[in-house]
Amino acid sequence: MSSFNHPSVAYQFVEADGVKVFYREAGAADAPVLLLLHGFPSSSHQFRDLIPLLANQYRLIAPDLPGFGFTQVPAERGYVYTFDAIGKTLEAFVDALDLKRYALYFFDYGAPTGLRLALAHPERVSAIISQNGNAYLEGLGEAWAPIRQYWADPSADNRQVISDAILHLEGTRWQYVEGVSNPDVIAPEAYYLDALLLERPGNKDIQLDLFYDYQNNLKLYPAFQQFFRDTQLPTLAIWGKGDPFFIPPGAEAFKRDNPKAVVELLDTGHFALETHAEHIAGRIVEVLGTAID
Known about the structure:
By secondary structure, the chain is of the alpha/beta class. It has one domain: Alpha/Beta hydrolase fold, catalytic domain (Rossmann fold), CATH 3.40.50. The protein has 12 helices and 8 strands. It has an 8-stranded mixed beta sheet, sandwiched between helices. The protein starts with 9 loop residues before the first strand and ends in a 5-residue tail after the last helix.
């Protein structure tokens, strides 16, 4: 009987910034580190297929950001949910694990949080994988229209519009299947888990606060882009082209600041790992190779 090596994944917590951060980890302790940063409304669960595919080559670490997944934020912590705060918690998490060098894989909310980490410690970042992780104004699709209206007028009515549109099971499912040519291949447990965790007491208000604060990420785009220009890091921008939130021009824009960046558009939607995990894993190895050091 044939055998195969299936890397094990550890599910752990660590205290960082007064937060009990849940994270997934796989790979040898001395292997090059790949830090996986999820987006809304998901968690490290979105990397469940990718991690085993790369764990024989890298040490993969995927935290749940505050407000998401299984990370626990004590009420007495008085946490204020902004991207600056999440970025600081992420920095504390990296320090708690004593990570001195890592490649960043960021998706959706993982981009502005991960790039804050990169600005704080540029010398630590070995490479960048952006999977529908935006850093350019032209990458914002029409799906942002109601959120832009909320930014302009943060009234209770506009806040409710966002909640009614997306903060429920059907709205979560839509994010997973929109732009996917065959929605039947999307595993339902992914969006059911996300929707279930959205229903925790107070969590919808957390998400609405983050939607409002997202406008502050746009103010940092010039700094993020300067980081790309200054470092010229090995970069793979690999995006689902059917994403209604972060559209293909946002992927192509990486080449403006880093002409050596590799841009690849996939025939899928926002959550590209749901349909293309094996392909994305292969491209990380092919394009970045030993650059992840």
